């Protein structure tokens, strides 16, 4: 009993240290993990991997030595990504499948096929989503409905499919990509988007609670990215505390590798901004958002 307690304390201390380093110096942390090839022999499934954060995450995971199961709607982009990764990292395996996450049955089919192909899925990153929403009551219900369905219901389906695999394996790591917009209700075009992202954050926390209650060895992480410039939003106006895709995605992957329960990324300034958003009066949050 004493040895188990000592081991648990030691493991917790190491994890806390890793999380602190990953938050403050994500590039340095990932450099060390790359040298160790921490992903060797392991497989990560990433949805929405043909562009944006999903594509850059896939490239970083490949650099860490992970095999990759990538999926998205655009087959030509996935094929090119696979070609790039296998050329740069010949020791890893990369497989791709076309997936439209609005097709819920297809999510379960693709996830199960990947599990059968690789034999084991170590991590699933629920990343696929859309950013298009409009002011409530302005006649754009269909746009808002699609955003809510893709960013919440489709994410729910991905979590269901992933957790079924993990329960059968009795291990795994579920990663849900939320958003800083989930911290509070936001006005205008952010209302539906933020509400859906808040929904998946609470969904992830509920799954995490279930794993703790069930004492199952399945990790659940929720990531709240701040403003990260990618090809998807390259034409948008500059935003406060914005970082480029390389900087932002390194912060995301570092937090994932550290095994955080939750993380606002990049940690500075978004961990501070997140706390402020929760506590400031709604009128002030609405103005600065």
Protein architecture, described:
The protein is α/β, with parallel strands linked by helices and 289 residues long. 56% of the residues lie in helices and 15% in strands. It is built from ten helices and nine strands. It has helices at 2-24, 26-36, 52-63, 75-88, 104-118, 141-169, 191-214, 245-257, 267-279, 282-288; strands spanning 43-47, 67-72, 94-98, 123-126, 172-177, 218-225, 228-229, 243-244, 262-265. A seven-stranded parallel beta sheet has the order 3-2-1-4-5-6-9, with helices on both faces. A two-stranded parallel ribbon has the order 7-8. Helix 7 links the parallel strand 5 and strand 6 (218-225). Helix 1 crosses helix 2 (26-36) and helix 3 (52-63) crosses helix 8 (245-257). The longest helix is centred in the middle third of the chain and has 29 residues, at 141-169. The protein is globular. The N and C termini lie far apart (51 Å). Mean pLDDT is 91; it is low at 4-10.
Percent of residues in beta strands: 5-15%
Give helix % range.
55-70%
Instruction: State Rg.
Output: 19 Å
Order of helices and strands: HHEHEHEHEHEHEEEHEHH
How many H/I helices? Answer: 10
Assembly state (oligomeric) = single chain
Mean pLDDT: 91
The spatial strand order of the largest sheet comes to: 3-2-1-4-5-6-9
Q: What about the largest sheet?
A: 7 strands, parallel
């Amino acid at each position: 009993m004493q040895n188990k307690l000592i081991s648990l304390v030691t493991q917790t201390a190491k994890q806390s240290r890793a999380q602190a380093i990953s938050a403050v110096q994500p590039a340095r942390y990932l450099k060390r993990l790359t040298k160790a090839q921490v992903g060797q022999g392991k497989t990560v499934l990433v949805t929405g991997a043909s562009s944006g954060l999903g594509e850059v995450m896939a490239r970083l995971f490949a650099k860490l030595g992970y095999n990759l199961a990538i999926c998205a709607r655009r087959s030509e982009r996935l094929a090119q990504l696979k070609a790039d990764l296998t050329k740069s990292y010949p020791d890893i395996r990369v497989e791709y499948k076309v997936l439209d996450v609005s097709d819920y049955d297809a999510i379960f089919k693709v996830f199960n096929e990947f599990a059968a192909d690789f034999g084991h899925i170590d991590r699933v990153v629920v990343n696929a989503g859309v950013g298009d929403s409009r002011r409530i009551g302005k006649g754009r219900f269909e746009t808002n409905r699609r955003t809510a369905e893709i960013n919440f219901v489709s994410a729910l389906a991905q979590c269901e499919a992933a957790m079924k695999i993990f329960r059968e394996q009795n291990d795994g790591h579920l990663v849900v990509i939320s958003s800083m917009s989930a911290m509070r209700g936001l006005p205008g075009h952010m209302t539906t988007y933020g509400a859906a992202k808040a929904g998946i954050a609470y969904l992830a926390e509920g799954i995490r609670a279930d794993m703790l209650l069930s004492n199952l060895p399945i990790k659940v992480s929720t990531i709240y990215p701040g403003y990260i410039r990618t090809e998807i939003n390259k034409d948008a106006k500059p935003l406060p505390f914005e970082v480029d895709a390389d900087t932002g995605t390194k912060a995301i992957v570092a937090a994932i590798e550290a095994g955080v329960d939750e993380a606002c990324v990049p940690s500075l300034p978004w961990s501070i901004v997140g706390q402020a958003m929760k506590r400031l009066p709604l009128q002030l949050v609405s103005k600065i958002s």
